[in-house]
Amino acid sequence: MAKKIEPEKATAAVIQEKQVSNNSPSTSHGPSDKVNINLAGEEELAEKLTGIGRQKAKAIVEYRQKYGAFNSIENILEVQGIGPAFLEKNKDKLTL
């Protein structure tokens, strides 16, 4: 037979459980502001990065297809039309 829990004790247990879960580090993989330059498509690159349109986004994807994955964030400078100003504006948004 199941043990009967008094309502006030049940409420206290739920409150305590919520407090513990709210203080725990998140393990979910929610949306990120970071753009993985080795995985992002043209649309994501164009939408999330500053100073880049469809043409430069396409150039990044084509470069990646031709030469393989970028080994460092700075390697994006090898893409035609991508310069130091682009990297400076977006360095905090880029990831591998």
Keywords:
single chain; 96 residues; DNA polymerase, domain 1; mainly alpha; 47% helix
Walk me through the topology.
Layout: H1 7-23, E1 35-36, H2 42-48, H3 54-67, H4 84-90, E2 94-95
Parallel strand pairs: 1-2
Helix pairs in contact: 2-3
Report on the architecture of this protein.
The protein is mostly helical. It has a domain at 35-95: DNA polymerase, domain 1 (Orthogonal Bundle), CATH 1.10.150. Helix content is 47%, strand content 4%. The chain has four helices and two strands; from the N terminus they run αβαααβ. It has a two-stranded parallel ribbon. Helix 2 (42-48) crosses helix 3 (54-67). Residues 11-30 have low confidence and may be disordered.
| Cα Rg | 23 Å
The helicity comes to 40-55%
> How do the helices and strands follow one another from N- to C-terminus?
HEHHHE
Number of helices: 4
